[in-house]
Design goal:
Distance between the termini: 46 Å
Number of strands: 8
Number of domains: 1
Shape: globular
CATH superfamily: P-loop containing nucleotide triphosphate hydrolases
Order of helices and strands: HEHEHHEEHHEHHEHEHHEHH
Radius of gyration: 18 Å
Strand content: 15-25%
Bound molecules: adenosine-5'-diphosphate, magnesium ion
CATH class: Alpha Beta
Length: 293
């Protein structure tokens, strides 16, 4: 259903934002690391690029704002409340540091109301509402990063329409199995017609790095992406084999440096082969928010 609507030419999503400032982080399923990567990108933009950055959390279940505002983030009012009730975003903006501001997604109730709004008003109108809401604060930021919810919730056409209406670049995520990478790329390019700026192959299992055949397949997938003019980065799965090792701030910093290099051509990352591991959430929350640059 969602894909059919996305294919229809009748959907018109003309750009409303003219400056290319928005980066939409998305994937075709939940749990691939959209929110984690959104938080890392926000940190890269604010701390390494020194750009005034707004992270917009639109994932009401477990979005990127938790990395900066803690587990209470999902109880705060935010993005969906503004879309439903109208008004301006500024009253929901949290200042993490002078360069990094965050808007939590808002309550589950508002997210559900937003879902009915799409059904009632249609994709184009809702995409325009989103663009107009961001237009109010666009001048205040050099970079806006939007963390997406699982696509089954917001539906695929709204994502496509959002990306065009916001004149956004996008970062697409997939897990590191070969089938998953190809399927995700195929849906993006062929079904949705979206060419992402960056493809993140996330949760690369250590087995892939030690098994020559698996390694060849994943490297082949990366070449396939790069040949289409899309930048690519592979991030390892942390915590599956080496539970005793935690995410270290040096690892987080290395990932953030790779993102800055790939997206904005800043610096020269010392390594893009990242091989530490550990339980992610609590440590990542501390590491990302406490990291010193
Ligand atoms: N590279 C990784 N290694 C291990 N765990 C990861 C990695 N990336 C994300 N995770 C974990 O996977 C879960 C889902 O990540 P999340 O960023 O919330 O995904 P999404 O936003 O796509 O649903 C979280 O528990 C997160 O800590
Ligand atoms: Mg998420």
């Amino acid at each position: 259903m969602g894909l059919d609507v996305a294919r229809k030419k009748s959907i018109e999503c003309e750009p409303l934002l003219h400056e290319k400032k928005v980066l939409v982080v998305w994937g075709i399923k939940g749990g691939v690391g959209k929110s984690t990567v959104s938080a890392l990108l926000a940190s890269a933009s604010a701390n390494i690029r020194s750009a005034k950055t707004l992270l917009v959390d639109t994932d009401f279940r477990d979005g990127a704002s938790r990395f900066f505002l803690g587990e209470e983030a999902r109880k705060l009012k935010g993005w969906y409340d503004v879309l439903i009730e109208g008004g301006t975003l500024d009253k929901f903006i949290h200042t993490v540091s002078p360069n990094l501001h965050v808007i939590p997604s808002g309550t589950l109730d508002s997210a559900l109301k937003f879902s009915s709004l799409i059904a009632k008003k249609g994709v184009e109108k809702v995409a325009r509402l989103i663009a107009n809401t961001l237009l109010q604060i666009q001048e205040d930021y050099e970079q806006i990063i939007l963390d997406s919810p699982v696509t089954s919730f917001v539906d695929i056409p709204i994502l496509k329409c959002n990306i065009s209406t916001l004149n956004a670049d996008s970062v697409l995520l997939s897990q590191a199995s070969l089938g998953e990478v190809q399927r995700t790329l195929n849906i993006a390019l062929s079904v949705l017609g979206i060419k992402p700026l960056l493809f993140v192959i996330n949760q690369v299992h250590p087995k892939i790095l030690t098994d020559a055949n698996e390694r060849r397949l994943i490297i082949g997938a990366i070449f396939n992406i790069i040949q289409r003019g899309i930048k690519a980065i592979a991030l390892p799965l942390h915590g599956s084999l080496y539970k005793e090792i935690r995410w270290r701030s040096s690892t987080v910093k290395a990932i953030v440096e790779c993102f800055s290099f790939l997206l904005w051509g800043i610096g020269e990352p010392k390594t893009c082969v990242l091989a530490t591991s550990g339980l992610v959430d609590e440590d990542m929350i501390k590491q990302i928010s406490a990291i010193e640059f």
